[in-house]
Amino acid sequence: MASAMSDISSARAILRAENLSVTLDRRRILQDATFEILEGECLAVIGPNGCGKTILLKSLLGIVPHDGKVVWRDGVTIGYVPQKIEADRSVPLDVRNLLASKAAVIGCGKDAIATAAARVGLSADLLSTQIGRLSGGQFQRALIALALLGSPDIVFFDEPTASIDEPGEEQIYDLIERLRRDLGLTAVIVSHDISFVSRYATRVLCLSRAGRCFGPPRGALTADVLAELFGTQSVYQHVGHP
User: Fold this and answer.
1) What residue segments make up the domains of the chain, in order of their start?
2) Are 72 and 2 in contact (CB under 8 A)?
């Protein structure tokens, strides 16, 4: 569970994890992870399947129990876009109903729903569309709009393009980057897409069976690290970040 402590070591840090470890069903998923998330940055969390990326996010959010410290800056508000939601998409629930249900819980009005929908490109027709009839990309935009309600300072995205085709992936990553810049959001994104990391990530947290790395993409993603993460000598071109 997240601590309410305020002993953040960096003036720009929104969160600090210290010796974060998670054990589920007697199996150690994550061990002694220590890192900070800075205000306004885009942190990419990458690694092979089964290395604990989703568990890391859920431990930071207090969804799964953990050992070690998770220290949030006072007053931070959080949004979360899960990889999937456990809901029967055959239920006659439209996007507007979905957004209105959260808005009612957190005390947002209709204006907040309209603003969130506009920011992610949900038209009036899409707001009236049943959840089960949305494409993968449209459904992802609905989940992002849902996360934006309440004006969060930081949003966690768990594999936001997992069920989307390649052109749709580009649109979702472009949308996340635009929201980060326009709204001053801090974004934490679990992704398998190394090209996304090269274009948008300000820092990267790599999880693998051999250990972990953390830092700016250029310094953290060495050839050896990429080989460990992806099982081959990957070619990675650093773009836009020192």
Assistant:
1) 1-76+154-242, 84-152
2) yes
Q: Where are the beta strands (DSSP E) in the chain?
A: 13-24, 27-38, 42-46, 67-72, 78-81, 154-158, 186-190, 203-208, 211-215
- Give pLDDT, residue 171: 94
For the segment 91-103, what is each residue's pLDDT rounded down to a tens digit?
789 999 999 999 9
Q: Is the domain 1-76+154-242 a CATH 3.40.50.300 member?
A: yes
Low-confidence residues in the chain, pLDDT < 70? 1-11, 86-89, 209-211, 229-242
Tokens 């849902």, residue? Answer: 146
Q: At what angle do helices 95-106 and 110-120 cross, to 10 degrees?
A: 130
pTM for this prediction: 0.88
- Is 162 strand, coil or helix? coil
